[in-house]
Amino acid sequence: MLRITHLGSNIAVICWLLLSSNHVSANASNEEIRFGSVAMDIPAIMQKRLLPLTKYLSNALDQPVVLKLSPNMPTAINEVASGAVELSYLTPVAYIRAHQKGETQLVAKTITNNKASFQLMIVVRDDSPIKTVTDLEGKTFAFGDRAAVLQRAVVVGADMPLEKLARYEFIDHYDNIVRAVLNRDFDAGILKDTMAYKWEGKGIRILYTSPDLPPYNIAASKNVSKEMLTKIQQAFLSLDPDNPEHSPVIKALDKNYDGFAPTSDAEYDVVRKLIQPFDKNQQK
């Protein structure tokens, strides 16, 4: 009986060791690095956009990088903040939230049309009678993800209080916003600059452009070691749009991207200031 108990104890120790090994932060060369993302498009499109990047990273890091898409922004934030994924493609606000929740670390920021910043744009149909932001009063408006506070902050910052709109709704993805405006389901909506430029002159007109904002970024869980973080940063910063092997990886993510640049948490303070009124309202 004592021998059986001793054997059981040894098995328990072995099981504990095996389970513990699964929590080692993405350092072992054979361990998967999970890559998440905010849901900026429908899952099928996001997978198409991100798969070339995960393949590139797998080769650059000599370690398998697997895609783990999130259905919405809150989930994406929680997954990288909790360490459920090691890396994630995030909006500025999503990074700020993840950093607040779980000390998420910045890896790199995106470069769009040779700019390491981006803009949000209020759009209407080409044939819309709406000519100024003031004309939006009493009109309907389409936002994306409810958690994308920056979208609302930009509209308010353009001197259009949300309560002056006749109605506004959250319809998840930018492609949904484009369709909704084109189909006259909403009088106006808000898009990321790259999506607005894609549809400009094809039924969509840009009504208002926000100031430059710190861009979308790649962030890492706090569980990723400093050594691995440096290795991942080097992989992103090495992506060269003039390299015929790298260009398809960059352009798959966004055809207007030119690669990645170094960044810091301080760069996102402008966004923190912009969304502060919304954070205060949530706390009331």
Structural class per helix/strand content?
Answer: alpha/beta
Cross-sheet strand order for the largest sheet: 2-1-3-10-4-11
Provide the CATH superfamily of the largest domain: Periplasmic binding protein-like II
- Element pattern in H and E: HEHEHEHEEEHEHEHEEHHEH
Calculate the mean pLDDT score and round it.
88
Amino- and carboxy-terminal Cα gap: 62 Å
CATH class of the largest domain: Alpha Beta
Proportion of residues in helical segments: 40-55%
Strand content: 15-25%
- Secondary structure tally, helices: 10
Structural shape:
globular
- The name of the CATH architecture of the largest domain is 3-Layer(aba) Sandwich
Biggest β-sheet strands, sense, barrel: 6 strands, mixed
Radius of gyration, CA atoms, in whole angstroms: 22 Å
Low-confidence stretches: 1-25
Could you give a quick summary of the protein structure above?
With 284 residues, the protein is α/β, with parallel strands linked by helices.
Written overview of the protein:
The protein has 284 residues and is an alpha/beta fold. It has two domains: 27-116 and 214-283, D-Maltodextrin-Binding Protein, domain 2 (3-Layer(aba) Sandwich); 120-209, 3-Layer(aba) Sandwich (D-Maltodextrin-Binding Protein, domain 2), CATH 3.40.190. Helix content is 42%, strand content 19%. It has ten helices and eleven strands. The protein has a six-stranded mixed beta sheet with strand order 2-1-3-10-4-11, sandwiched between helices. A five-stranded mixed beta sheet has the order 7-6-8-5-9, with helices on both faces. Helix 5 (149-157) links the parallel strand 6 (140-143) and strand 7 (167-170). The longest helix has 20 residues, at 2-21. It starts with a helix and ends with a helix. Residues 1-25 have low confidence and may be disordered.
